[in-house]
Design brief:
heterodimer, A: about 190 residues, 9 helices, about 0% strand, B: about 260 residues, alpha+beta, eight-stranded antiparallel β-sheet, about 40% helix
């Protein structure tokens, strides 16, 4: 008998090993997730050096807090990308505050400012996203898509979205909820036969 | 994501999943999540949707220098409470492991250090090497590991004149499920060849351990996950195979070592 393929450990197995200080497991998780984390950071921050710093922070945090992952909260992949997005958004807001403090200085990078909603040229859906996710997002109502765009790609809080779009906070919450539900359902639907 | 009326915490879940809550709301949400398994399951649905947004951005490959920086952070010391409780046993085993492995590793370690010194002009590359050394140190200092020294096999590839004799070391974990292979001073192959690792059971069954990439200095390192159904490993070998690897080892075996039963 010759075995040609080795079954790789699952993410859950690896993260449980990370919690015991298993460096090889942490390295394997880096191999699996460095690209999506870095890509997300680069897409949102639009600054390669900052994206690298944030990616390093995210994996350092995983090493230090690997044991905090609770499998009952869902897939490791979803949890970890959420953790990474949280860190990326924190950095985006920190940079925005720093730019705001320097009133005389215009942000060097447009990512630091909240861009006008509703302008397709400014929506990350058009500017950044690609493939089936872009198609799925374009299919949901514009007000929900804009709310998701401002929250996820521009680091806006619900309150800021309400101010930016001129709608009540409750409406923003509803738009975010419906937008996420429709996005999830759209991505679960099988692709039409061509 | 049901259509039923939402309670205040459920109403905050989408904002939490998108990291769009204020600090106070976020803290309240985390307290609620810790106490409510239903809320946690609902959050999982929203996180699946936000993960899709992450998947939709163009994929950019980070630099190797970032990899070295991150791996350098992965300290070998176990960090959790349960792992810390095991540390005294590790400490006692440490001395024994050092005694056993010091001889085997001394030549390898010296070569590694010399190599790092040579590469100091390239900081990123040096960081990578340091991370590799830390990996080996971690393995070497863990009680119960076994090390297999591999010797070169006389072949045309190995008769190429090199400053040092090719050598290889395989370090196997106590459970015999994972191993680290380090190759030093192997001849650099052309574009049509790769080094491939083979695990040979006592009954002669051969398993591929994957291919190993060698850099310009003849150095390569690989993690090998042993197949679950594999029996006792009797020997390990490295052969030259066509690019992409082979189903079975060729006749061009360049390194071989016997594994002593635990």
């Amino acid at each position: 008998m010759v075995t040609l393929t080795l079954s790789p450990p699952t993410d859950a197995e690896l993260v449980s090993r990370v919690a015991t200080g298993d460096r090889a497991a942490a390295e394997e998780l880096y191999n699996r997730y460095s690209r999506p984390v870095f890509s997300m950071a680069y897409a949102i921050l639009r600054d390669r050096a900052a994206a690298e710093d944030v990616t390093q922070d995210v994996f350092t945090s995983l090493w230090l807090r690997g044991g905090s992952f609770d499998p009952l909260r869902g897939l490791f992949r979803h949890w970890f990308l959420h953790l990474a997005h949280n860190r990326i958004v924190d950095e985006l807001r920190r940079r925005r505050r720093a730019a705001d403090h320097d009133a005389a200085k215009e942000p060097d990078d447009p990512a630091l400012g909240l861009e006008a909603p509703g302008d397709p040229a400014n929506e990350a859906v058009d500017r950044v996203l690609m493939g089936s996710v872009k198609k799925a997002l374009r299919a949901i109502p514009a007000d929900q898509r804009i709310a998701l765009d401002l929250a996820y790609f521009h680091g806006a809080t619900q309150q800021e979205i309400a101010q930016q779009t001129g709608v009540p906070l409750g409406t923003v919450k509803t738009r975010l909820r419906l937008g996420l539900m429709k996005l999830r359902h759209a991505l679960e639907e099988p692709a039409p036969l061509s | 994501m049901s259509q039923e009326p939402l309670n205040p915490m459920q109403n905050l879940l989408p904002g939490y999943a998108l990291n769009a809550l204020g600090a106070e709301e976020r803290e309240r949400m985390e307290q609620a999540l810790a106490a409510d398994p239903v809320l946690r399951r609902q959050l999982a649905d929203y996180l699946a949707a936000t993960a899709a947004l992450a998947d939709g951005v163009p994929q950019v490959v980070p630099d190797e220098a970032l990899r070295a920086r991150v791996l350098a952070w992965f300290a070998p010391t176990p960090l959790t409470a349960s792992a810390r409780r095991r540390f005294p046993r590790l400490a006692w085993g440490l001395a024994a492991a050092v005694m056993v492995l010091a001889g085997a590793f001394s030549g390898v370690a010296a070569l590694q250090q010399a190599r790092i010194n040579d590469l100091r002009t390239d900081i990123a590359h040096a960081e990578t090497s340091l991370a590799q050394q830390r990996t080996l140190s971690y393995w070497a200092l863990t009680p119960g590991v076994s090390a297999v020294s591999m010797r070169p096999v006389a072949t045309p590839q190995m008769q190429v004149r090199r400053p040092a004799e090719p050598r290889a070391m395989l370090v196997v974990n106590p459970e015999r499920t994972v191993a680290v292979l380090m190759l030093l001073d192997l001849p650099v192959l052309g574009a049509d060849g790769v080094y491939q690792v083979w695990l040979v059971e006592t009954d002669g069954t051969v398993h591929s351990g994957g291919v190993v990439t060698i850099d310009a200095s003849g150095y390569g390192q690989a993690y090998i996950h042993f197949p679950e159904q594999m029996g006792q490993v009797a020997a390990v070998s490295v052969s030259v195979e066509p690019t992409g690897g082979s189903r079975l080892p060729s006749q061009r075996v360049v390194m071989r070592g016997n594994v002593v039963a635990p």
